[in-house]
Amino acid sequence: MNIAQALELQSQLADTSDSPRLDAELLLCHVLNKSRSYLLAWSDKTLDAEQLSEYEALLQRRQQGEPVAHLIGTQGFWTLDLEVTPDTLIPRPETELLVEAVLDLKDHTPLRAADLGTGTGAIALVLASERPGWQLVGCDRVTAAVELAERNRQRLGIRNAEFVEGSWFEPLQGSFDLIVSNPPYIDPEDPHLQEGDVRFEPLSALIADKKGMADIESIAEQARDYLAADGWLLFEHGYDQGEAARDVLQALGYENVTTIQDLGARDRVTMGCWRGQKEC
Known about the structure:
- This protein has 280 residues and is of the alpha/beta class.
- It has two domains: 63 residues, Helicase, Ruva Protein, domain 3 (Orthogonal Bundle); 190 residues, Vaccinia Virus protein VP39 (Rossmann fold, 3-Layer(aba) Sandwich), CATH 3.40.50.150.
- 35% of the residues lie in helices and 20% in strands.
- Strand 4, helix 8 and strand 5 form a beta-alpha-beta unit.
- Helix 2 packs antiparallel against helix 4.
């Protein structure tokens, strides 16, 4: 079987994936240790028996619902290629909006920023790579997540970020000009938790009490003790939580509270400034 024929096996994923062709290409690239452009250029190249067996096994696992990122061990995010494991959430394109909002908000002027619930380290590492003059610290209460984020940092050669273990603000010291987070925000009763890739991700990183708002409320309240004057808090949330997120920040005294929508015109990121002794 050649590469072109192997990719036709994407039909097995039609009922599992919204992007069967892409999934098949990524799995085959992983097996061959080649780029997607290689698949096109060498479509008539024959797979050996071992390669075909490995590819078919991965297709079967994907057909059963396992995320492609878990099957190949990596996920692209922004400009970085990150190692992923089942210990953390898989970085998603929606979270790039949070990164974009931070970069639009602050220039290259040196500052300190914290990423709460860092997981793979995706947000902290992108910000550190885009703003070499910043100092980033990412924290996570899961030991395996901190170890994963540190492996990603070392592999990418990023020096202006560090990762520490602890729940939310517990391991942090000093004040921060920026605090960012992609916290759990899904209602535990949400039926979508039984669908798609999230079935294979840690539930504790997905759900929060109070219809998904509990961790957002906790972070917003505690952040006031860690934000420098004129510091900003930004976090991702569900498409239907924009109004609730703004209400939380405004009730706690944040100013310039704004919600940013994603490309589908859905509320996705809310931000607010903690005035302190300065104007935001």
